[in-house]
Design goal:
Elements: E1 3-6, E2 14-16, H1 18-28, H2 30-51, E3 56-62, E4 66-74, E5 80-100, E6 105-118, E7 123-139, H3 144-210, H4 216-251, E8 254-257, E9 269-271, H5 284-294, H6 296-317, E10 322-335, E11 346-356, H7 364-430, H8 436-471, E12 473-474, E13 479-480
Parallel strand pairs: 1-8, 2-9
Antiparallel strand pairs: 3-5, 4-5, 5-6, 6-7, 7-10, 10-11, 12-13
Amino acid sequence: MLVIAVTGGAAQPLKLTLGEVVTIARDQSIASKQAITQQKTNYWKYRSFLADFRPQLSLDGSLPSFTRSFVQVVQPDGTIAFQPVSNNNSLLNLSLSQNIPFTGGSIYVQQQFQRFDDFLNRRTLYNGIPFAIGLSQPLFRFNLMKWDRRTEPLRYAESNQQYIEALEQVALDATSLYFDLLVAQVNLQIAETNRANNDTLYTIARHKLELGKISRNDLLQLQLSVLNARKDLASARQTAEVASLKLRTLMNSREEENGPAMAGRPRPFELVIPTEVRDFTVDLQLALKQAFSNRSDAIAFRRKLLEAERDMEKARKENGLNATLNADFGLTNRGNRPGDVYVRPQDRQFVEIQFTVPVMTWGRARARTETARANQELTLQTVEQAKRTFEQQIYTQVTLLDMLRQQVKLTAEADQIAQSRYQIAQERFKLSDLTVTDLGIAIQDKDRARRDAILALRDYWQAYYTLRLLTLYDFEAGHKIQ
């Protein structure tokens, strides 16, 4: 959190550069913290996915499992008798299982121990499986694990790039709000200067009217300019306050004042005009290559194509024969004592094939397959269109950045010329060598040139950070943004 301390009776402006604002926003804005939290969530989701393909050791059972009731028992003659029961049937099962991604099945090793207490007959029996190995294998069925091993790493890589993009988006948002405030401050400075100059020129004009050097109409025009300048100044102050609040909110900054007199009064921002335009070359082919290598959208293209292929295979395989092989081999025994379970245990085998064969579906199988095929074609077309749009964005941004770099230089030169011309016009008016109308034109040209220079800088820096966001590549330093 940005902590600002103020000493003295008045709040001193906090001087900030564009780079400092971007850094603060990346470090402590709410948006950046949300991106970090989302990335942590995605990381642990991926860790959970990886854990599903590793051996799982589990202990399950029922301890105790007590029953005291009457149960119906069918007699030899077909009648029913309700017999009292009072027993405890406890069971513990320890198993080690492993999924098989290539086949979609699972293999397990288990050990089981069971104790049965008959309280009515005062008898205790033991049953157990000292060792067993089993297999559960789907046959002719869709293998989701195989596809997850291809799509989930892409999804995780996509989330990593989305995190970097979120921070670059914060930088772009900070740049936009920085220049919103900077433009407002420039307009405020222009309004204050114009107000002061118009007051001075109006005073001079009143003296010149007494000397008969200007008309009363010119004096009234200057008086109107004074009123408009004061109105513009009030509006500029309000706009600057709103822009400052928006930037402060994005930066998530807070001020701590020393003394009760300053409580609740944050220090105003004094923004530095980033006139230094970075001169570096952006190769279009490199920009396209980096964009398709780094952007989450490019990774999402591959993931969506895989998912469409996966859905097609799922629709095709789930419409035919579905079967599952369950097999189990091990040792088992029973006895009156716990140790009897492990003395000369006997073989235990179990084999089962469960299957489902659709006989009459009234075209449902074909409808599902054709739907999946149509969705796959739609995904291919959508991804292809998205790729072309993506390429067009990169091309536009690269050419725009080069154009705006030149625009910054031209508007800066025009600003210097307009400021000099206004100074000359002001001196000529004082010497009665210039009309009020020509002076007003010089003022308008001066203000327009200053605003155009700031707006050109805003457009350039927004294009600069937009290109970083679209490619996740720092062309100035020549490396990927990590």
